Amino acid sequence: MWQYTEAVHDHFLHPHNAGPLDDANAIGEVGSLACGDALKLYLKINKAGVIENTGFETFGCASAIASSSVLTDMVKGMRADDALKITNKDIATALGGLPKQKMHCSVMGQEALEAAIRQWKGEPPVPHALEHGEMVCKCFGVTDAQIIRTMRENGLKTVEEVTNYTKAGGACGECLDKITEIVGKELSLKPLTEIRPKPRMTNVRRMQLVLKTLDEEIRPRLESDGGDIELVDVDGRRVVVSLRGRCSQCRSSDVTIHNLVERLLREHVEPDIIVEEA
Amino acid sequence: MRTVYLDNNATSAVDQSVLTAMLPYLSTLYGNPSSMYAFAGQASDAIDNARESVAALLGAGPDEIIFTSCGSESDNTAFWSAVQTQPEKRHLITTRVEHPAVLNVAQYWERQGYRVTYLGVDNKGRLDMDEYTGALSDDTALVSIMFANNEVGNIYPVQRMAEAAKEKGLLFHTDAVQAVGKTPIDLRHLQADMLSLSGHKIHTPKGIGVLYVRKGVRFRPFLRGGHQESGRRAGTENVPYIIGMGEAARIAAENLQEERMQVANLRDKLETNLIERIPDCIINGDIENRLPNTCNISFKNVEGEAILLMLDRLGICASSGSACTSGSLEPSHVLRAMGVPFNYAHGSIRLSLSRYTTDSDVDYVIEHFPGIIKTLRAISPYKD
Predict the structure, then answer these.
(1) What is the span of the domain harbouring residue A167?
(2) Domain extents for chain B?
(3) C-alpha–C-alpha distance, residues B376 and A60, integer Å
(4) Is A108 in the B-facing interface, judged by CB distances under 8 Å?
(5) ipTM score
(6) Euclidean distance between CA atoms A139 and A248, whole angstroms
(7) Which of residues A242 and B288 earns the better pLDDT score?
(8) Closest CA in chain B for residue A19
């Protein structure tokens, strides 16, 4: 028996925004009957680019239905461009977590959302990960690009996790060697910049990376000079810090901020980070 | 909330008289049957009686009954013994629709270099006798064919199949875990060399199984050690459970005929009503030839786990062959072997009854089931 959270039960038993939306102008469809789950997501996006209304139809288990339901709540009232920043992890988190074997349900939600918005923008309604890359799992139609992206967004480290999140390798198992190779390769080229999901980053993720970079990269260097640094705020791409210890009296603190802190944050977090001193 | 237990092919309720028979051996009569004093002798005598009851249920002799820990151990032992006693033979025959307790064992031996024939089934889950007889060879160390299928309930023609194996002098094993107590088995006519059964499917607690080994068949123990079970299965006897097994076998033998009718009537009522009230569903399996207690229905365009969770809210216990419940990402191997279309395979539900299932249980399910399918179909993107 799966251990589902209360939120999963609630959304499954009383799904929000269930059913098709007649005036939808963005529809994303992912999955198939053969795969065992499928989602058709309906969005009504207004002229200002804001998602006004949502609907969904899902064929699948309780967590697939709950993921669809919570997603339609999350995006309602959001700007379409902001909605594109939602990751599968955000969906799972909104449900208070999903059993690890069920994470692919949240991935399906994210992919349907992306497909819908792309359709609205006039782009081919295919999740971008499917466009590029080579087909790895023929049973579930998963590409290497999709596997790598899901690995990066969720910090996956094993083949089993890849199967739980993408279903790849979960049927005939023929592609498991290929997945092992992809996982090995991905984990071996692991400077922090590579983990960073390039197309979009949530505030939470950005915050985590900033903290990690401060802890692992920046602080040790300052400490060797008897200084320290404190994070004051992260506001979009603006990172506010305060120098401590000997750094705070240092006349070249400006240089430290720009040549060290900003450079490292740009390298490890996002290329357009701006660092300011509080 | 009421509980309607319709998952008896998974496990079954412990019979009160089974429990009563076991209790003394869980408390005061704790002697080791191998000991020499009269106090322990009581346990030893009780085991002899239990062995006779199990033998009587199967039409076997008591010295052909080995108590094990579960059906899986019995199946593993059958393969082990067949392979070890005939090291020159390198071929095994089984089916694609076996329980994992046989299927995974066959695959294990395949990895050890054995050639394994997995017999296919048609869309009703039936085996092809010609394919079977064509596969029999002098190199075959063991034929293992399930007596009845756990998912769809099909009863296989093991009697004819065992005869065909016998004619070639080949060893024949049958996993009868789902069949015992539900359909008559008489080893005086059925020429199987080995047969596995499990107690908890016939109302004992979990943790007791039996392997029947026909007298004269060469045997090698799977579990080595002490001399218990005439040196064929080491380990101090699980006395209370063996006693429970004996009592369950006695009750099964006594009630088999009457119970079959009663259970089949309820199953048929349940099945007919569900099929009538719910559009777009199919019965999986061979309705001409299946266990009286098993009903496996597929509902188009809905997913089994979602159905199970909604049933669970009403206290109805069932199981599904859908991917999401199988722990894998694919629907059950049995339904796939049968070629059940995907839009049906993911929505399969197994309802399995027992002597404890009542008419009112069946009415309750008939009343609530159609609404569940309707709700789920309303939010499914697939409408036809």
Answers:
(1) 129-195
(2) 4-11+256-378, 16-252
(3) 9
(4) no
(5) 0.86
(6) 59
(7) B288
(8) B379
Residue at A41 is within a domain: yes
Contacts of A62 in chain B (CB under 8 A): 305-306, 309
* A151 closest CA partner among A139, A161, A141, A142: A161
Q: Which SS3 state, helix, strand or coil, does residue A126 take?
A: coil
Encoding tokens for residue A133? 């890359």
Beta bridge partners of B119: B95
User: Which among A135, A67, A160, A69 has a CA at the least distance from the CA of B327?
Assistant: A160
Six-digit token pair at B34?
């191998």
In the block, residue with structure tokens 């039409």: B59
Any bridge partners for residue B66, and if so which?
Answer: B211
Q: What is the dihedral of CA B216, B221, B222, B223, to 10 degrees?
A: 150
Closest CA to B212 of B65, B72, B70: B65
Q: Is residue A1 part of a domain?
A: no
The mean of the pLDDT values for chain A is 86
d(CA B265, CA B248): 23
Residue A41 Cα, gap to closest chain B Cα (Å):
10
pLDDT tens track for B337-369: 999 998 899 999 999 999 999 999 999 999 999
Cβ <8 Å between A36 and B301: no
Distance from CA of A118 to the nearest CA of B (A): 20
For residue B258, the tally of other CB atoms under 10 A from its CB is 10
CB contact under 8 A, B329 and A56: no
Tell me the pLDDT tens digit for each residue of B117-158.
999 999 999 999 999 999 999 999 999 999 999 999 999 999
> Is-catalytic flag, B324?
yes
Based on the fold, state whether residues A18 and A117 are members of the same structural domain. yes
Q: What is the value of pTM for the model shown?
A: 0.81
Report domain B4-11+256-378's class.
alpha beta
Q: How far apart are CA A106 and CA A39, in angstroms?
A: 11
- Could you tell me whether strands B319-320 and B348-352 are parallel, antiparallel, or unpaired per DSSP bridges? antiparallel
Contact B155, B180 (CB under 8 A): no
Q: How much is the pLDDT for A125?
A: 62
User: Does 3.40.50.1010 match the CATH number of domain B16-252?
Assistant: no
Least confident of A156-170, B68-82, B147-161: A156-170
Task: For residue B24, give how far its alpha carbon lies from the nearest alpha carbon of chain A (Å).
Answer: 34
In 3-state terms, what secondary structure has residue B210?
Answer: strand
Q: In terms of C-beta distances under 8 Å and separation of at least 24 residues, what long-range contacts does B306-309 make, across chains too?
A: B306/A12, B306/A60, B306/A61, B306/A62, B306/A65, B306/B376, B307/B347, B307/B349, B307/B372, B307/B373, B307/B376, B308/B349, B309/A12, B309/A62
